[in-house]
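Q&A FORM
Asked by: J.P.
Topic: structure of Beta-glucuronidase

PROVIDED:
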Amino acid sequence: MTGGVTCSVLLNTVLIFLLIFESVTNGMLYPRESESRQIQELDGMWNFRADTSPSRNVGMAEKWFEKQLAKTGPVIPMPVPSSFNDITTDRKLQHFVGWAWYDREFYAASDWENKRVVLRIDSAHYNTIVWVNGQHVMHHEGGHLPFEEMVNPYLKFGQANWVTVAVNNTLTPHTLPPGSIEYMTDKNKYPPGYFVQNFEFDFFNYAGIHRRVRLYTTPKVYINDITITSRFEGSTGYVQYDVKFGGLGNKTYPFVEILDRNGDTVAKGVSLSGTLHIPSVTPWWPYSMSKDSAGYLYTLKVTLKSESGSHDVYRQQFGVRTINVTDSQILINNKPFYCHGAAKHEDSDIRGKGLDFPLIARDFAMLKWLGVNCFRTSHYPYAEEIMDQADAQGIAVIDESPGVGIRSNANFGNKSLEHHLAVMKELVGRDKNRPSVILWSVANEPASNKPMAQHYFKTVISYTKSLDPSRPVTFVSDAEYDNDVAAQYTDVLCINRYYGWYQDTGHLETIPYQLTYDLEQWYKTFKKPLIITEYGADTVPGLHTMPSYVFTEDYQVDFMRQYHAVFDVFRKKYLAGEMVWNFADFMTVQNVKRVVGNKKGVLTRQRQPKAAAHVLRHRYWSLINETHSLNKSLGL
Ligand SMILES: *[C@@H]1O[C@H](CO)[C@@H](O)[C@H](O)[C@H]1NC(C)=O
Ligand SMILES: *[C@@H]1O[C@H](CO)[C@@H](O)[C@H](O)[C@H]1NC(C)=O
Ligand SMILES: *[C@@H]1O[C@H](CO)[C@@H](O)[C@H](O)[C@H]1NC(C)=O
Ligand SMILES: *[C@@H]1O[C@H](CO)[C@@H](O)[C@H](O)[C@H]1NC(C)=O
Ligand SMILES: *[C@@H]1O[C@H](CO)[C@@H](O)[C@H](O)[C@H]1NC(C)=O
Ligand SMILES: *[C@@H]1O[C@H](CO)[C@@H](O)[C@H](O)[C@H]1NC(C)=O
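REPLIED BY: S.T.
REPLY: Here is the structure written out as tokens.
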């Protein structure tokens, strides 16, 4: 990443003198237009070529990045953003593992020469190398998180340029999620060089350039990062902010203002960091707890003037709210928050995990229709455009890293740990200012019953807390209360349970016994609030039986009712939430247990309701009404 500049600040008046150090940290502010910033979208049809050579290495060896991809061999059109897997009719491409190559042309305006031009990829899965005009620009490991680099040295201003992106979806024991390549060497059973990608997570390993690709400009001295934390006392909001700038310059003249939802200025400051007061603050609330201030966002408008006279302006949204965790509850703004939610996936027909605005809007419409007040980004960070909606619509988020399927001994080594810490830093850096994020989840269903998980998760969790002391941290466990070695380090217990599905399949009557015992033991052992982060049953839409039978819509309904009865007992004690698995059906690997994907959605993959969705909707809206039996003025 770009060598930015950190500053130790001696501030007194508007004039600030800075000592300049080299730094490796770089902000990851979302690209936003402003008086000083322009954006050029690079989304659309790109040229695409998968390296299907047995070694998958011919493209690298032949340096396909040195010329237009179409000059290296046959290319096909590939939409960006999207996963490449389900676009064509080619089975080989659907299951392709290795380097996939993309390129396209663009123009760089001649008046950009005096600006800083940054190329940002919001996410590509997994290992990505980027060249501009044949010159290496950046390399990033990991899907689901953005990466960027200043590209001025590589650009031809006022002329055509081309960008090449190579993406490798190979998972190794040290990637997140981890996986391994297995070579099938029995010549009587497999073609020469045959290999498969193995991993321990239950969703399709979609790959490609999954989110937006953009160029954006800033002045040469620019706002590099903004960190905001907030709290309130009585009706006064306290907003602590810290602005980091980049570029060479000894003096900056910062000006910050807080704007309310109407755009009116409610506070001002003239330093790079400090605490501003908002009189009569409107806190951020989940929509299930407040109508008028649901998703209430303020804007910190930062204007940075440098001694050379250039101005940079950036507007960062934030909310004023607190999160506290007691031994039995999660409090938002000092009021108990009961999470009635759903786990999700970024998944849809044809485009896979590719960013899709209609799908985002539809998902939020269905989340609200269901009465969901909280979702988990299972099992990887979601697109920033999704997180924006959670902030603005007042839906709480458990923000999860791509740490899923950490199960074999090889996944717990120092190399894996180091990468996991780097990923947490990227995730916290990206989402730290989001009021919707109430809890970080560092992993899903790791082998937290293995002794080696103790050091590993102690390290990841304490590191995450050091990155963000303002939020609680957890991981999601499928181990048992008496063998989990990592749950002790969490602030909130999150556990996944499938009584009546994976265990005692079809035996609905066992659910209350097993679930009750389990909840009691977890609480007795750890004395922390507890969320059931998954429970669910596969359901083929349209299948009905009476009495209910596994895989029918009727079974999903009966199954959920058993869980809900137990939840109703414990939510008055230390159960802080329930989250159905899953919001919608989603694709998985081909497997005799999965009929074209995982069917545990209460919605189909097309986001239409199954019978259970109506049960859930009635329950969740009753809970919202109960929360506000309260306040007729809510009129929910
Ligand atoms: C790219 O993919 C190939 C094929 O799976 C694999 O052998 C290679 O190690 C991968 N390289 C990187 C840097 O991920
Ligand atoms: C920073 O200040 C020093 C001393 O005042 C000066 O010599 C130097 O040229 C300045 N650097 C820049 C980039 O303005
Ligand atoms: C709740 O958390 C906020 C920070 O989010 C902190 O300032 C406050 O002291 C906490 N309150 C309690 C009662 O712990
Ligand atoms: C991992 O690192 C720690 C400390 O940095 C060291 O004590 C330990 O031996 C290392 N473990 C392995 C498996 O290399
Ligand atoms: C919630 O309250 C509203 C307004 O009082 C009412 O119309 C609705 O039926 C209630 N929903 C449930 C599920 O109780
Ligand atoms: C009900 O709403 C009013 C106006 O928004 C507010 O002043 C009051 O505190 C609310 N009452 C409860 C119990 O939330």
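FOLLOW-UP: Residues 618, 621-622, 625, 636 surround 2-acetamido-2-deoxy-beta-D-glucopyranose (ligand 5) (CB under 6 Å).
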